Amino acid sequence: DQQVKQNSPSLSVQEGRISILNCDYTNSMFDYFLWYKKYPAEGPTFLISISSIKDKNEDGRFTVFLNKSAKHLSLHIVPSQPGDSAVYFCAALGNQFYFGTGTSLTVIP
Amino acid sequence: EADIYQTPRYLVIGTGKKITLECSQTMGHDKMYWYQQDPGMELHLIHYSYGVNSTEKGDLSSESTVSRIRTEHFPLTLESARPSHTSQYLCATSTGGRTEAFFGQGTRLTVV
Lengths: 109, 112
What we know:
- The complex is a heterodimer of chains A (109) and B (112).
- Chain A is mainly β.
- Chain A has strands at residues 4-5, 10-14, 19-25, 32-38, 45-51, 56-59, 62-67, 72-77, 86-93, 97-99, 103-108.
- In chain A, the strands form two sheets. In chain A, strands 2, 4, 5, 9, 10 and 11 form a six-stranded mixed β-sheet that branches.
- In chain A, β6 (56-59) and β7 (62-67) form a beta hairpin.
- Chain A is globular and about 40 Å long.
- Helix content of chain B is 0%, strand content 46%.
- Chain B contains no helices and eleven strands.
- The N and C termini of chain B lie far apart (33 Å).
- Classes of the chains: A mainly beta (109), B mainly beta (112).
- At the A-B interface, β4, β5 and β10 of A face β9 and β10 of B.
């Protein structure tokens, strides 16, 4: 059974607007969460992470929010740029990394 | 400059061939991983290693094998490739603590 879920396979956003990518998890023992960006035929690159003791972490245009009670995290990208178009994977760290199925973001110029 | 090197980047081979996918790292990390990923799917862990002479199978059943004779090197071998092995194979490393994993550029394998 999948422990990390990304229920939106794709998302399209206008350039300059906010992109919000969502992720849900089932295991309350997860204590570290990450977002990765992936281009086709390349490996994922790390974007941003958050520890379970925090509810928000910001790095430039990227902010990750964690709602432990809802077992939900989200990635906000503001402002969105065409170069942000890629697949975004949410991951949780327990005894290993658990990945979601990814959300394909398209930023329209 | 990449710190995790995967070769080859792309490989097309015939059914029944033996292949080895190479993964090397210069980061000095103890933990290394092999993932398999198909479009629209999550990354599936197929093998991992805590360090030299340590190898474990991941959650996804795999007909591949791995070895970890040196910290820097974590090759994955398929003894007899089949079309069902067609996928992208990703190697990753981490320190083993509460921190991110770093990925190589992947090997896109096609078995015909």
